[in-house]
Amino acid sequence: MIIKILLLAGLLFAAVLAYRSPLNSRNAALRRLFTLALLAAGAVAVFSPRLVTVFARELGVGRGTDLLVYFLAVVSLLAWLSLWRRLYELEQRLVLLTRRTALHDAQHRLSGTHSLPDSDRQA
Amino acid sequence: MCVVIPMYNEGSVVGGVIANVRRQFPNVVCVDDGSRDHSADEAEAAGAVVVQHAINLGQGAALKTGIEMALSLPATEFVITFDADGQHRVSDAVRLVQVAREEKSDVVLGSRFLDEGHDVPWSRRLVLRAAVTFTRLTTGLQVTDTHNGLRVLSREAAARVRITHAGMAHASEILHEIARHDFTYKEIPVQIDYTEYSRAKGQSNLNAINILHDLISARIRSVR
What we know:
The structure holds two protein chains of two kinds. By secondary structure, chain A is an all-alpha fold. Chain A has helices at residues 2-20, 25-47, 49-59, 64-112. Chain A is 83% helix and 0% strand. The relative contact order of chain A is 0.10. The mean pLDDT of chain A is 82. Chain B has a seven-stranded mixed sheet with strand order 3-2-1-4-6-5-7, with helices on both faces. In chain B, strand 2, helix 2 (39-45) and strand 3 form a beta-alpha-beta unit. The longest helix of chain B is centred in the middle third of the chain and has 18 residues, at 122-139. In chain B, 45% of the residues are buried.
């Protein structure tokens, strides 16, 4: 039963993360800590599968492997959303950069030549 | 007055289009959105000020770049957006500017559905009809053509309209911006010439899915 609450919370967290969390150093640090914790948990699971099964029972899941699957699903979702988010931000920055250089070049060329035709006539 | 023409690989027609436009509007800013052909040279030869994106970003981004360039020219009182493929008529653009002046509208939009007897391909008509309904529901704007590239924006409107979508969703975004800023707007009937050329490269109807996705995810992102 607890597992259902945990999974729902995990999914909700993923949704919020996907659209809301700013990409700053604080979040990066938290993300890294989270990754380390995940790796540690993974190590524990490898060393003692029995522990995983015990843990699973506590949460209301039948088998250790089932818990692992649920866990994997949520983590994969989080990872994918995080990547998608960062790709989006990257795309935005690329647009800004391209625009900046394009305008800069154009204005530079413009000031080098005589002014636009009819720029002094009423628009 | 400045005409902004976003362009991507229209080397075969853009020269003629710009030449036509310049007969009525001498100031043309043409944004080359990373074309792989000689579009930029054609545009420049025809007398446009060419702004080149190093990579292809999308029509929305190209439009925004063009508008920024247009606004950097102090003589620009109105910004006219115009397509590079020859589908728009310069005479329509002239009329739109006239309306903008006379009615003091912040924005004047061209619509191909305001009067009957236009040969819009039926599949396109269907998708556009859906887009119109969606737009009316989400913005409250009573428009009949949500994806028409022919518009006139006053200098102030052009400066305040926020275009963040690089792709085709920018058209809907502009309408949302009109609603958000409460700009006065008018829709004027215009003719779109569906040539063999433009039909071949027109927006596929599947793209409507992409547009819808862009708009919805933008909505989610903006919820505070």
